[in-house]
Amino acid sequence: MAAAQVWSVDPRTGKQREQVAVEATAADVDRAVRAAHEARPALADRAVRAAFLRSAADRLEAARDRLVEAADAETALGTARLTGELARSCFQLRAFAGIVDEGAFLDVIIDHPDDTATPPIPDLRRYKVPLGVVAVYSASNFPFAFSVPGGDTASALAAGCPVVVKAHPDHPATSELAAAALREAAAEHGIPEAVVGLVHGFDAGVELVRHPLVAAAGFTGSVRGGRALFDAAAARPVPIPFHGELGSLNPVVITEAAAAERAEQIGTGLAGSMTLGVGQFCVKPGLVLAPSGAAGDQLVKSLADAVAAVPEGVLLDHRMRDNFVAGVAERAALPDVDAPVTAGAAGDHAVGAGFLTVPASRLAAEGEHDLLLEECFGPVTVVARYEDDAEVTAVLSRLPGNLTATVHLSTEESRGAGDAADLVAALTPLAGRVLVNGWPTGVAVAPAQHHGGPYPATTSTSTSVGGTAVERWLRPVTYQSTPEALLPAELRDANPLGLPRRVDGRRES
Amino acid sequence: MAAAQVWSVDPRTGKQREQVAVEATAADVDRAVRAAHEARPALADRAVRAAFLRSAADRLEAARDRLVEAADAETALGTARLTGELARSCFQLRAFAGIVDEGAFLDVIIDHPDDTATPPIPDLRRYKVPLGVVAVYSASNFPFAFSVPGGDTASALAAGCPVVVKAHPDHPATSELAAAALREAAAEHGIPEAVVGLVHGFDAGVELVRHPLVAAAGFTGSVRGGRALFDAAAARPVPIPFHGELGSLNPVVITEAAAAERAEQIGTGLAGSMTLGVGQFCVKPGLVLAPSGAAGDQLVKSLADAVAAVPEGVLLDHRMRDNFVAGVAERAALPDVDAPVTAGAAGDHAVGAGFLTVPASRLAAEGEHDLLLEECFGPVTVVARYEDDAEVTAVLSRLPGNLTATVHLSTEESRGAGDAADLVAALTPLAGRVLVNGWPTGVAVAPAQHHGGPYPATTSTSTSVGGTAVERWLRPVTYQSTPEALLPAELRDANPLGLPRRVDGRRES
Q: Where along the sequence do coiled-coil regions lie (chains A, B) (predicted)?
């Protein structure tokens, strides 16, 4: 049987562009993982790792035109957005290089002997070591930032872990180009190119998470696909950490006072956020609690005007388009659900943005309207109109875990008036990032970022964006009573590598 | 049907001592978890939490005589050991109180806005919040330190998480007494007693890990029991972190030069470590690679002399005794396995310590001798005699993950001579703690401690002993563009709580 062909497809026409590769067989996956495993020592030196990450950014920038052209042809995301996404990915690679240089992520803790403790404390020195080969599952909606050269790859390499990336079928050509850039950067520093493996195909993805030499996995995608891989990771003879970002509704609460103060601004802002990238962001606001009454009506009207003016767009592939059209139609058919602007198919390939409204009371208890509490990927959101605070509380209590939760407050509430602080506190259990008077789309690459949240937002307590993402690919090890000459340099008293560390309870930087 | 009775049993006689409780029904578990969940706000204040932990230590010390008496009657571990274990547990509770006071575990990171980043960075403030109710599964072999008042409980409470503890059937009376002491301490600070729930019974343990309001679990026990609960935790509609310590062989490598230098000292030290607590430590050295030849022979002779002199002991329960006797017999019956001192039954209730020897070549490839690479709980170890370094490497490559790995080196090797550093490096992938010239029994409570290791040593990358154990029960949350008045006090610019934190990339302590 011939190997299955992997084609690059233009979502603007539905036509095949070129054959990029063939799907990886089990033997191919095994080869890629073994080669990556063998390449681990080449990543041991932190200075080399940091230089590699910076070269990777340089190479991606050098290949920008080709990368953006291929990505636009495969994803229809547009060259402006893709140019920005590539810049973000390069910024991210350099940020992780800085993290590698600093070495705080090694979390060095040294305790000298203490005979007064119960039991006595011997000489103990702890730091973190890389887990091994990381399987990275690319996202459909970010061909750069959450794919081959994205945050999982960057943070894994920063930790000292080779990666084998499972390319997303929506952008195989872009994946090959990006992997080539990363491999060239590796070769530039004498690192085997196998530190960045790339495989195509659904079955290859399953093989990958089951491979005995794969030590951890990072995933960005759907609840269905992510849960299947999470389950496979947990069912292994030796289970491995599976850091998956699966899905999120990203609730937004708009207070009565906020709507009264700036209905138009909020309506317009929401339209921009929910339709950004044709609604294909994991942090798209998918459920908005807006007050009933005149101010809320004005907000909905502003939203309608703004959404109606949004140009048609092309989704990442035709399967997603079909799912979007069907998902919107199924939701719109529910009792008491209205569609002030109808989302759905536009021509043979595009879709139009829209939104639905529903009385919040319909979501306050289990029932057929629970469908509205499931993510619908694409340019649509649900505005639930509430009568009072009790309805807001009731709806929030029914939400699954989220990446983000947002509240829009009036000027006075933002200064602490009323129960605004309680509302912020009530949103905290729901999400990994809480926003006030902003929109969740746009995930900054920064040390304090947290892009994760209670299940199904993520399958672990970790983040896939920001400096602490590197923690996912490490495990601590402690050396007890180990003579100086045999210790890793990171743990020697003299601190030859100049690492920030904690010694006998005191922090040294 | 009447509820199943929970009896305290004396392992020295096999006789029932007293009925302590009845097994918890599903409804009982639900009540305990809900009450613990409702009690969360009482743990929100760090000062109150720290005071509670210190009072818990005080109360346990005040109840010391009763606790030790009950524990000795149920476990036969002896009053000296149990007094020490209780002191360790109190030290641990106070150590976590200190960690709560300091607040470094909140991992506060603040980034002020930066428009030069790609994409621009808004105001982001991250810290860690408690996960919720933690299920704690007590260990058989540490009725205090890894049970009701042990490290999982102490670290969970330190994190702000209530616990529901599943008592171990080997010490139900001790569990009740310890829980009472912890609850009295809670009440002293106005905290509902439900922050420390206690349930008995196998089925209750399964119910617990499946309960929707249980947010995480800590476990110390066998591979079989731990894996079943890990699987249940992963299979939930909303999976939860399961931090299990399941089993460990704790390999020891003795170099030719070390044996030549101090065969007797090593043999005697090994005898002490492997028979400590009647061989019922999770860090018992269970596989020792010793050189063939005269020095190794001398080491084995010293080990034999010392082990033969170890008094008989009583295991924690009769099922363990049966498993130990059968496990030793099955191993001793393998080809080429000798028993210089035969371990096994002694009278109706006790066991005698012993050890087995085998040529290391028998362990170098898959076969029936793989049984020797499985933990055998009780006072027995396996000494594998190697001919050359290649055999050492071959055996090490076949080991599952371990809590500890130890090497004994000569004085010259300890100074870095020969390939000692390579040997230490080769042990690092095998374990969470690497020891040189020591014995793995004895796990100090210290910031740099790591008590965990690759599966099956633990099911996660975390530790159950030491300051970083608190990290298991927290998740990060980031506030974006949130006005000062609405931020948790921990994240305000003025740092009113005086927390160590990282602001715009610089660490403040």
A: none
Residues A302 and B59: their CA atoms lie apart, in Å, by 63
Residues 6+ apart with CB under 8 A from A329: A344
Distance of CA A403 to the CA centre of its chain: 9
Q: Sheet of A344-346: strands edge to edge?
A: A313-314, A350-352, A344-346
Residue of A74, A207, A245, A490 marked catalytic:
A245
Cβ within 8 Å of A, B 48-107: 84, 87-88, 90-91, 104, 107
Element (H, E) at A198: strand A196-199
Q: Does A114 touch chain B (CB under 8 A)?
A: yes
Of A425, A463, A478, the CB nearest to B476: A463
Interchain pair A478, B230: CB under 8 A: no
Contact across the interface for B124 and A421, Cβ inside 8 Å: no
Of A136, A134, A148, A166, nearest to A56 by C-alpha is A148
pTM of the model: 0.97
- In chain A, which residues have their Cβ closer than 8 Å to the Cβ of B474? 461
CB crowding A133-147: b at 16 or more within 10 Å, else e: bbbbbbbbbbbbbbb
| Of residues B235, B477, B482, nearest to A436 (C-beta) | B482
CB contact under 8 A, A482 and B121: no
Provide the 3-class DSSP secondary structure of residue B259: helix
The conformational region for residue A116 under phi > 0 = left, psi -120 to 50 = alpha, else beta, is alpha
ipTM over 0.90 threshold: yes
- pLDDT (tens, 9 = 90+) of chain A, 509 residues, equals 567 999 999 999 999 999 999 999 999 999 999 999 999 999 999 999 999 999 999 999 999 999 999 999 999 999 999 999 999 999 999 999 999 999 999 999 999 999 998 889 999 999 999 999 999 999 999 999 999 999 999 999 999 999 999 999 999 999 999 999 999 999 999 999 999 999 999 999 999 999 999 999 999 999 999 999 999 999 999 999 999 999 999 999 999 999 999 999 999 999 999 999 999 999 999 999 999 999 999 999 999 999 999 999 999 999 999 999 999 999 999 999 999 999 999 999 999 999 999 999 999 999 999 999 999 999 999 999 999 999 999 999 999 999 999 999 999 999 999 999 999 999 999 999 999 999 999 999 999 999 999 999 999 999 999 999 999 999 999 999 999 999 999 999 999 999 999 999 999 87
Q: Residue A135 contacts by C-beta under 8 Å, 6 or more apart in sequence?
A: A163, A164, A165, A166, A208, A209, A211, A214, A216, A217, A218
Cβ-defined contact of A444 to B124 (cutoff 8 Å): yes
Q: Which residue has the tokens 């199904």?
A: A456
What would the pLDDT profile of B107-160 be if each residue is shown by its tens digit? 999 999 999 988 899 999 999 999 999 999 999 999 999 999 999 999 999 999
| Joined tokens for residue B160 | 């702000």
Query: What's the CA gap between A457 and A473, in Å, rounded?
Result: 19
Q: What is the DSSP letter of B322?
A: H
Asked if B131 has any chain A CB less than 8 Å from its own CB, the reply is: yes
Are the CB atoms for B107 and B99 separated by under 8 Å? no
A–B: how many Cβ contacts below 8 A?
A: 246
Contact list in B for residue A252 (CB cut-off 8 A) is none
Chain A residues in contact with B478 (beta carbon < 8 A): 432-434, 448-450
Residue A311 burial (10 A CB sphere; 0-12, 13-18, 19+)? exposed
Q: Which two tokens stand for residue A336?
A: 């008491």
Beta bridge partners of B164: B135, B197
**A450, B126: Cβ pair inside 8 Å?**
yes
**Cβ(A288)–Cβ(A254) below 8 Å:** yes
Collect all residues of chain A within an 8 Å Cβ-Cβ radius of residue B485.
414-416, 420-421
